[in-house]
Design goal:
- The protein has 266 residues and is mainly α.
- The chain is built from eleven helices and three strands, in the order αααβββαααααααα.
- A three-stranded mixed beta sheet has the order 1-3-2, sandwiched between helices.
- A hairpin with a 3-residue loop joins strand 2 and strand 3.
- The longest helix is centred in the last third of the chain and has 24 residues.
- The radius of gyration is 18 Å and the shape is globular.
- It starts with 13 loop residues before the first helix and ends in an 8-residue tail after the last helix.
Length: 266
């Protein structure tokens, strides 16, 4: 799976709906998903990934990533009720990062050569956190009426059943690790872009660097280019939308800096 350079697979709960709509599910799996349910399933998936992929032991990289993530989280209003987020840097060459319900953030070491400074990394993390706090995965799951008995029950059944495990992991944003990639809708991606821009600016990061981040992603090209870029807003449209929101974001950054929020993550 590590030969596939994918970026920001996010909490891809939507793949539950896309995949299972045409599959035979264990009896009784339909209905809604609460924040608590989603948090439990997110935690299960994160523990599974930690068993599968080694964490980076580089203290400098860990300190850097946590510095950026914590600065963004400090200004994040999370309506799902998460108080403490767990941040793990995974030793993996793919350009990837993700956030899961329940306050879980993963960053691959392979992302750092693409997001080359603190502001670009804040762009990525703000985007991923945006998916979580906007409940994009849960919204799509509920709309499809998937889990009658709740996500906790489904997680216990599906994550423990090899017949459904890969699809369940993809649904939670682990597709980059399990070879199943089913991305968010274009509208959700666009919303996450703007939420992420807002968060990074409020944290004091330079929102202008978000444009450079997407240019870096475009420069990967070919097989190295993130798979979802073919399905979601083009880099040109993405950049256009970000540029439209940039004046407000720059004002937010200036206000944050004036209040002493001046990140210096290295």
């Amino acid at each position: 799976m590590k030969t596939r350079n994918l970026f920001m697979s996010g909490i891809l709960i939507s793949s539950f709906l896309v995949y299972f709509a045409c599959q035979s599910l264990p009896a009784g799996l339909s209905g809604g998903a609460s924040d608590e349910d989603m948090a439990k399933l997110g935690a299960q998936a994160f523990e599974e990934l930690k068993k599968k992929t080694p964490a980076s032991t580089d203290p400098a990289i860990n300190a850097y990533v946590r510095c950026v993530a914590n600065a963004v989280l400090k200004v994040t209003d999370d309506p799902t009720g998460v108080k403490d987020w767990e941040i793990v840097v995974f030793q993996d060459p793919t350009a990837n990062a993700f956030a899961l319900p329940g306050g879980k953030i993963g960053v691959h070491t392979g992302l750092l050569p693409v997001a080359t400074n603190q502001d670009m990394l804040a762009t990525v993390l703000g985007h991923e956190i945006g998916h979580v706090i906007k409940r994009h995965g849960a919204t799509r799951m509920q709309g499809g009426g998937l889990l009658e008995k709740g996500v906790e029950v489904a997680g216990n059944m599906i994550l423990g059943d090899s017949a459904y495990k890969e699809q369940a992991m993809a649904a939670l944003g682990m597709g980059v690790n399990y070879g199943v990639v089913m991305p968010f809708t274009r509208s959700q991606e666009s919303q996450a872009d703007l939420v992420g821009l807002d968060l990074m600016a409020k944290a004091g990061f330079n929102p202008g660097q978000s444009i450079l981040l997407w240019k870096n992603m475009s420069a990967l090209g070919g097989k190295k280019q993130p798979a979802f870029l073919s399905d979601h807003p083009s880099n040109e449209n993405r950049i256009k939308d970000l540029q439209g929101a940039m004046p407000k974001a720059m004002q937010q950054m200036a206000a944050a800096n004036a209040q002493g929020r001046t990140p210096n993550c290295r």
